[in-house]
Design brief:
The structure is a single chain. This protein is an alpha/beta fold. It has four domains: 152 residues, ATPase, nucleotide binding domain (Nucleotidyltransferase, domain 5), CATH 3.30.420.40; 132 residues, Hexokinase, domain 1 (3-Layer(aba) Sandwich), CATH 3.40.367.20; 196 residues, Hexokinase, domain 1; 171 residues, Nucleotidyltransferase, domain 5 (2-Layer Sandwich), CATH 3.30.420.40. The protein is built from 28 helices and 24 strands. Strands 12-22-21-20-23-24 form a six-stranded mixed β-sheet. Helix 5 packs across helix 6 and helix 22 runs antiparallel to helix 25. The longest helix is centred in the middle third of the chain and has 47 residues. The N and C termini lie far apart (125 Å). The structure holds 6-O-phosphono-beta-D-glucopyranose and alpha-D-glucopyranose (2 copies). Its EC number is 2.7.1.1.
């Protein structure tokens, strides 16, 4: 008999243990929860996965925690927790720093929580009204902060549309609407008092801010109440849903939704599923339903009912429905505390549950298991957040020591834009031109192609990454068409660094070869010469090289007219050099051929530069006041007078020291293709030396100048294949990067190329704002013709540039037009007009002051 009872009890015990075992999580389980939470956090932050992420990571538009200098008197509402409260908060700063609060709690009846939105907000406003009466403040229009503890998609601190109700709320016509607007409208409906609603925040954000006021290190806010949720300070650059990369923003994770994509089904039990099915939002907030106060009592109740049904608990009497509903989270909390069994029994007694001593033990165990699981799950989630913050900080540390100076805020960029605009003015004005760094060279090109150009031309294109010779035929049969054939020729280093005579002989030889291949040896063709270096022109076909830039350094050319030099080299060949243009000008003209609005040309290639159409009356160096002329800015030299010292880094200085032209083209050396790869290499070497990368290992290849190319930067930067590319490229330099190394290298590439795009946006912004002022229109509508390998090879770069320009010059509509066919088509256009204006055509009198100019002045 005794053994039979003992056996039955043992069997019962096993069953109970089995039931509860499903609710006890192992450390592996928890580790997995943490890892999955981390994945969902990242998915919520990223643009491409945000819409399907179960953790929504909602931007809060709170950029920083309080610093103690806050002051004033505010009204606050707190809706969504256990209580609805209205408060007045008085904050003092300074020595008498203090916060005083007066508040009143109001009930929100169930029928209002689940009635219509209008009823709900009318009720809220009625409570406010009562509170203001109570405080005697009806007539003071106070600023109001609204803690609204539900997921809101915010677009500003005072705008937030409700994503979906959670917890016990289900009022109609609210989801998708702006809660601030709804509150404003309800205040208007009541027409009794007025309030300025200045902010809407989630309770987690409010909590973080409250605590940060006491402890500035606070950067996470956790609510474990009716609902469960966390917010924390995230780096702006990681929040893809919000523009901008600098600083931080608090993100409301809404982690209660974690698991909605079934990723934690392995740890959910049938009790969790029952609780879910009986809730207002079946399938939603699955993590919340395992962790928060509103549901813990429910889970315990489901388990107790199950155990009772299976005859394992409360044999006399079975609890009726009413009693069941008495078990709420407070009871669970109490019961899972360290209470003596007698006290447990007393509580159960109060609930009308007649329990044996065994029953109390079991109930206490169930409560303990459920609340322990909740705490552990929150802990696992929190660990994911802490890891994320730690990682952010690791990266920031890196940024602070090396790269911080490379990240330029919009404020700095604006400032650089202003400095550049000043430089533009200095270069144009005859008094200041001699000392100006940005030379603003007149080009004698006076208009964009008008469609009447035609002919058969040769174009030389020297100075970019390739030396090209082309034949360009522009005809007018039917539509205007352009036909081009081209060949690339080598420019070996010994030639571009040798004597000028040899360089031009080489050019002439290549030209001879090209003409022979084209079978035009005996034809007399006009040549347009894209010569991508700073030249002082006196007319279209007289062009004195001021100084070599980029890779070129042939002797005896600086100060000489390159048309003369080339003519000398060509000797007898029947070609006529009609025009020399800078590549920026060629690019503007090429694009202008397709889009008449084009009035700016920029190159972001081996070097960088821009030209644009300036009003002739502003160009002191050229006579005449009517019309416009294209100015080659030579912006690469911006900063040569020390103007950019505040933003140049040790790496920029090192690049300059090792270059062919130290002290010159300082802006170009921060941004253009010839230098970007080297910049990254220098950073990698320094970081490796200090042990931050590659475990401190550096191969001789990585130490070799030029081994890390700009095209590598572009391909590593791509988000998808970038990391594999980093491994490949570094592998080819003999390195064995770890996964973390690859991430860091990608990060560095991004920072360097981002800086380049931002700086170009600032200088281009300077030109655009000048154009806008020249035209005197409130808005500028224009097209920028653009070319160069850095810009072309790298979609991210282009996007970034466009975005920053739009931020810096908001009052403009800029079209960026890529010059698909290089600068030569444009050079041919210039040549065509020059040809027409020269003696070759029967054009009668030419009244233009500059006979070789683009403008046909008849
Ligand atoms: C080419 C133009 O497309 O781009 C050249 O035809 C120009 O005139 C060049 O110099 C600039 O880019 P990169 O990258 O070759 O220096
Ligand atoms: C719910 C809400 C969330 C809130 C949390 C705690 O999860 O969706 O916004 O922060 O409850 O109140
Ligand atoms: C260099 C040259 C400039 C050219 C640019 C782009 O900056 O000085 O003339 O336009 O490179 O090739």
């Amino acid at each position: 008999m005794v053994t039979a009872v003992a056996q039955r009890l043992a069997a019962q015990r096993r069953e109970i243990n089995d039931t509860l075992a499903r609710l006890s999580l192992s450390s592996e389980n928890l580790q997995q929860v943490k890892d999955k939470m981390r994945v969902e956090l990242e998915r919520g932050l990223r643009k491409d996965s945000h819409s399907t992420a179960s953790v929504k990571m909602l931007p809060s538009f709170v950029y920083r925690t309080p610093n103690g200098t806050e002051r004033g008197k505010y009204l606050a509402l707190d809706l969504g927790g256990t209580n609805f409260r209205v408060l007045v908060v008085k904050i003092r700063s300074g020595i008498r720093k203090s916060v005083r609060m007066y508040n009143k709690i109001y009930a929100i009846p169930l029928e209002i929580m689940q009635g219509t939105g209008e009823e709900l907000f009318d009720h809220i406003v009625q409570c406010i009204s009562d509170f203001l009466d109570y405080m005697g403040m009806k007539n003071t229009r106070l600023p109001l902060g609204f803690t609204f503890s539900f997921p809101c998609r915010q677009t500003g601190i005072d705008k937030g549309s409700l994503v979906s109700w959670t917890k016990g709320f289900k009022a109609t016509d609210c989801e998708g609407n702006d809660v601030v607007e709804m509150l404003r409208e309800a205040i208007k409906r009541r027409n009794e008092f007025d309030l300025d609603i200045v902010a809407v925040v989630n309770d987690t954000v409010g909590t973080m801010m409250t605590c940060a006021y006491e402890d500035p290190k606070c950067e996470i806010g956790l609510i474990a109440g009716t609902g469960s949720n966390v917010c924390y300070m995230e780096e702006m650059r990681n929040i893809e849903m919000v523009e901008g990369d600098e600083g931080q923003m608090c993100v409301n994770t809404e982690w209660g939704g974690f698991g909605e994509n079934d990723c934690i089904e392995d740890i959910r039990t049938r009790f969790d599923r029952e609780v879910d099915e009986g809730s207002l939002n079946n399938g939603k907030q699955r993590f919340e339903k395992m962790t928060s106060g509103m549901y813990l009592g429910e889970i315990v109740r489901q388990i107790l009912i199950d155990l009772t049904r299976r005859g394992l608990l409360f044999r006399v009497p079975v609890p009726n429905r009413e009693v069941q509903s008495c078990i709420n989270d407070h009871v669970v909390q109490k019961l899972s505390d360290r209470l003596a069994l007698l006290q447990v029994r007393a509580i159960l007694q109060q609930l009308g549950l007649d329990s044996t001593c065994d029953d109390s033990i079991i109930v206490k165990e169930v409560c303990g298991t459920v609340s322990r699981r909740a705490a552990q799950l929150c802990g696992a989630g929190m660990a994911a957040i802490v890891d994320k913050i730690r990682e952010n900080r690791g990266r920031n540390q890196m940024n602070i020591t090396y790269l911080y100076a490379m990240r330029l805020s919009d404020e700095t960029l604006m400032d650089i834009m202003k400095r550049f605009r000043r430089e533009l003015g200095n270069g144009l004005c005859s008094d200041t031109n001699p000392t100006a760094t940005v030379k603003m060279l007149p080009t004698f090109v006076r208009s964009i192609p008008d469609g009447s150009e035609k002919g058969d031309f040769i174009a030389l294109d020297l100075g970019g990454s390739a030396f090209r010779i082309l034949r360009v035929k522009v005809s007018h049969e039917k539509k205007q068409t352009v036909q081009m054939e081209s060949q690339i020729y080598d420019t070996p280093e010994d030639i571009i660094h040798g004597s000028g005579t040899r360089l031009f002989d080489h050019v002439a030889e290549c030209l001879g070869d090209f003409m022979e291949k084209q079978n035009i040896k005996d034809k007399k063709l006009s040549v347009g010469f894209t010569f991508s270096f700073p030249c002082a022109q006196t007319k279209l076909n007289e062009s004195y090289l001021l100084t070599w830039t980029k890779r070129f350094k042939a002797s005896g050319v600086e100060g000489m007219d390159i048309v003369t030099l080339l003519n000398k080299a060509i000797k007898k060949r029947g070609v006529d050099i009609m025009a020399v243009v800078n590549d920026t000008v060629g690019t503007m003209m090429t694009c202008g051929f397709d889009d008449q609005r084009c009035e700016v040309g920029i190159i972001i290639g081996t070097g960088t530069n821009a030209c644009y159409m300036e009003e002739l009356r502003h160009i002191d160096l050229v006579e005449g006041d009517e019309g416009r002329m294209c100015i080659n800015t030579e912006w690469g030299a911006f900063g040569d007078d020390g103007m950019l010292e505040d933003i140049r880094t040790e790496f920029d200085r090192e690049i300059d020291r090792g270059s062919l032209n130290p002290g010159k083209q300082l802006f170009e050396k921060m941004v253009s293709g010839m230098y970007i790869g080297e910049l990254v290499r220098l950073i990698l070497v320094k970081m490796a030396k200090e042990g931050f990368l590659f475990e401190g290992r550096i191969t001789p290849e990585l130490l070799t100048k030029g081994k890390f190319e700009t095209k590598h930067v572009s391909s590593i930067e791509k988000s998808k294949e970038g990391l594999t590319k980093a491994k490949d490229i570094l592998g080819r330099l003999g390195m064995e990067p770890s996964a973390d190394d690859c991430i860091a290298v990608q990060h560095i590439c991004t920072i360097v190329s981002h800086r380049s795009a931002n700086l170009i946006a600032a200088t281009l912004g300077g030109i655009l704002s000048r154009l806008k002022d020249n035209k005197g229109n409130p808005r500028l509508r224009t097209t920028v013709g653009i070319d160069g390998s850095l810009y072309k090879m790298h979609p991210q770069y282009a996007r970034r540039l466009h975005k920053t320009v739009r931020r810096l010059v908001p009052e403009s509509d800029v079209r960026f037009l890529l010059s698909e066919s290089g600068s030569s088509k444009g050079a041919a256009m210039v040549t065509a007009v020059a040809y027409r204006l020269a003696d070759h055509t029967p054009t009668p009198s030419c009244k233009s002051k500059h006979p070789m100019s683009m403008r046909d002045s008849t």
